[in-house]
Amino acid sequence: MQSVLSATYNAGYRIGMIVAGAGALFLAEYFGSVKDAYIYEAWRNTYWVMAAVMGVGVATTLMIREPAVNRAPPERPVGDYARLVVGVVCAVSVFVACFAGLGKLLPEVEGVLAGFLLEAITLVGVAGSGIGCRYSTGACRRGAKTSRRHHVGLSRF
C-alpha cells in the first residue's frame, strides 16, 4: 500500500508541476504576452492568479486544526543525543580538516574541467572521511540499537 501511495504522490507532484508551468504560459499569453516580447503587465497578472490559486491551499492549511494525538513521545536517554552530537561534530571537524589540508597539498590545476574534476575528487574523499569518522565512533551502531526499542512499525498505520 505504501508503494501505491508513494507513486500517486509522485505522479501528482509531477502533474502539478507540468500544469503550473504550462498554465502560467497559457495565462501569460491570455493576458497579452507574446513569444518575442516580455510584457510586464501580462506576467504580473499571471503571477497574481498563481498566487491566488496557492492562497487556497495556504488558507486551508492555516484553517484546519491539527488532529489530537493520544500517545506520548518516546523518552530517550541523554546518551543517545550526546552520541549524535559527538558523531556530527567529529564528522564535520574531519571534513573541514581534510578539505583544508587537501587544498594545500594538491597543486593548482589549469583548465576548468580539470579543476572541477579535482574538486569533485576532493569532495568525495572528504565526505568519505567524514562518514568513516562517524561510523568509527560507533555512534551510528549504538544509536541504531538504542532507537529500536522506540521503533514504531509502518504496519500500525
From TrEMBL:
Query: What SUPFAM superfamilies does the record point to?
Result: MFS general substrate transporter
Cross-referenced InterPro entries, in alphabetical order? MFS_trans_sf
Sorted UniProt keywords: Membrane, Transmembrane, Transmembrane helix
Q: Does the keyword Transmembrane helix apply?
A: yes
| Gene3D superfamilies referenced in this protein's UniProt entry, alphabetically | MFS general substrate transporter like domains
Q: Transmembrane ranges?
A: 12-33, 45-64, 84-106, 112-133
Name of this protein: Muropeptide transporter
Q: What is the lineage of its organism?
A: Bacteria, Pseudomonadati, Pseudomonadota, Gammaproteobacteria, Moraxellales
